[in-house]
Design goal:
Strands 1, 2, 3, 4, 5 and 6 form a 6-stranded antiparallel β-sheet that branches. The protein is α+β, with helices and mostly antiparallel strands.
Length: 192
């Protein structure tokens, strides 16, 4: 499955065969079955993880034990807990598998060394960090400013392929609404 990651890298920058071989030599593949955890709350996250196949979700449990989904990660997306990675602190996030998955993983030290050795990889990572920051700001803005209808429309416009892969109650959690509210919003256009 490293070839999926290689194609991703080549779509983002220019890499020599030697650089790609070096990147591959420092990676390892992790296969996960549905309902397995990639990360559990309380563990320290020390990896960079690229999803080559499958679908994962990142979520927190609130004080009542209710799941609050922060992110989905599918093919060609990254998964992990950036705060735990950067600060070396225990994660407050759980990441589990919604569809059988294959993840290309790197130990933190190895990946950071690769970024120093391969300028094209460092550029890909910097671009990714900037895009993630922009996406997070958009998500915050939507959460505090959009109506439920606008949140749902934004989600289906941005992630049309996820609609058939993720249960509705999880989409509702991601949007910060109840499943009943989301069902009502979804049924409204049919009534018009």
């Amino acid at each position: 499955m490293f070839d999926v990651f290689q194609q991703y890298l080549q779509s983002k920058g220019s890499f020599t065969q030697e650089e790609l071989a070096l990147i591959q030599s420092r990676s390892f593949i992790k296969k996960l079955r549905r309902k397995q955890y990639l990360l559990q709350e309380g563990d320290v996250w020390n990896y960079y993880a690229f999803v080559a196949k499958g679908c994962l979700r990142s979520y927190h449990l609130d004080e009542k034990g209710i799941e609050r989904i922060m992110k989905f990660s599918v093919e060609n997306w990254w998964a992990g807990d950036r705060e735990s990675l950067v600060n070396g602190t225990p994660s407050t996030t759980n990441i589990d598998v919604l569809e059988d998955a294959v993840v290309v993983m790197f130990k933190k030290e190895d990946f950071e060394q690769l970024c120093q050795e391969i300028p094209a990889l460092n550029k890909v990572v910097n671009t990714l960090v900037h895009r993630s920051y922009i996406a997070a700001n958009h998500r915050i803005h939507a959460a505090i400013s959009y109506t439920t209808e606008e949140k749902y429309k934004d989600f289906i416009e941005k992630y049309p392929d996820l609609m058939n892969r993720i249960p509705l109650h999880m989409i509702a959690s991601y949007l910060g609404v109840t499943p009943e509210t989301l069902s009502r919003v979804r049924s409204q256009p049919a009534k018009k």
